[in-house]
Task: inverse folding
């Protein structure tokens, strides 16, 4: 049974006062717990596509998201952000996104520890507190733990650990959340795409269908890659289909600025639209190894705006109950 609006306000004030740290950042839940966890099943494979973005400071501040919506002509319904190991759950940001009709997805990066230590319970106190905070807020959130595990550039990647330890850590975290009753999480397993024209067995890294709700992908259109959706993502989607039929989400994608961006944007939308198993994408709007920001290419902005006008993209996540 849901609390009344008046009781919810009182609960919000009490929880905010008790869970805000010295920095003033809300790291706990900000709403009274409900009797039942939020049922995420309607969100797993919706009839329309997720239309997402990752921008600096979002979703703790929603102004970058509103600015993005003004540029591209449509409100995102998925906000991706990055968190380090030891960071508290960003309940304020998650609530900000939810109130705008968007869900958050956190890329949770275990810097400063090892997958073996996580699997052996070294972080259990932290994980239990995090799980409780997610449960208390009780809105859907996607969690992508230790993504790009099939590459050698992260400390949890192939040069530092084994697929077996990765799977053991993933399952341990998942089990702790389940034990806390935190079933309002959409668990998103996110490898980096395979290099076009190659084949790598990804199944060894897969925790199993009982532990995964979405398969995320990290892949970017660059100047040297194939400028087609199938050329960039096809080999990885084919490989994943060998061992899982879970919905796919391009959790981190963008196109390098320059003469190809307009065509790459078109290829991205057309590929996602034509793929029933791909439920959407989130554009990485950051300046990192390249300038992936939409502002870096006016032609790309115009094409993105044109393609995103399709009603297939975007919906209010709160309406799927």
Result:
């Amino acid at each position: 049974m849901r609390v009344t609006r008046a009781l919810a306000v009182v609960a919000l004030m009490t929880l905010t006062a008790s869970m805000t740290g010295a920095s003033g950042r809300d790291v706990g839940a900000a709403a009274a717990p409900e009797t039942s966890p939020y049922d995420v099943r309607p969100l797993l494979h919706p009839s329309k596509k997720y239309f997402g973005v990752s921008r600096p400071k979002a979703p703790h501040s929603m102004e970058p998201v509103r600015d993005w919506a003004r540029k591209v002509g449509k409100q995102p319904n998925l906000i991706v952000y990055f968190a380090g190991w030891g960071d508290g759950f960003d309940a304020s940001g998650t609530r900000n996104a939810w109130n705008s009709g968007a869900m958050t997805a956190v890329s949770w990066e275990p810097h400063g520890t090892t997958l073996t230590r996580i699997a052996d319970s070294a972080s259990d106190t932290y994980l239990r507190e995090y799980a409780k905070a997610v449960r208390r807020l009780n809105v859907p959130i996607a969690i992508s733990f230790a993504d790009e595990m099939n590459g050698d550039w992260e400390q949890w990647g192939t040069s530092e650990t084994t697929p077996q330890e990765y799977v053991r850590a993933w399952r341990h975290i998942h089990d702790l959340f389940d034990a806390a009753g935190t079933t309002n999480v959409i668990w998103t397993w996110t490898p980096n795409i395979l290099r076009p024209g190659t084949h790598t067995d990804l199944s060894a890294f897969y925790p199993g269908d009982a532990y995964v709700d979405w398969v995320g992908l990290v892949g970017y259109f660059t100047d040297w890659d194939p400028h087609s959706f199938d050329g960039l993502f096809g080999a990885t989607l084919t490989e994943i289909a060998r061992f899982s039929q879970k919905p796919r989400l391009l959790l981190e994608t963008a196109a390098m600025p320059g003469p190809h961006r307009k065509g790459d944007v078109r290829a991205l939308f057309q590929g996602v639209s034509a793929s029933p198993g791909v439920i959407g994408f989130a554009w990485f709007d950051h300046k990192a190894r390249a300038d992936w920001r939409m502002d870096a290419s006016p032609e790309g902005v115009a094409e993105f705006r044109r393609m995103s006008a399709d009603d297939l993209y975007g919906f209010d996540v709160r309406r799927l109950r």
About this structure: The two ends are 15 Å apart (CA to CA). The chain has a mean pLDDT of 90. The longest helix spans residues 163-179.
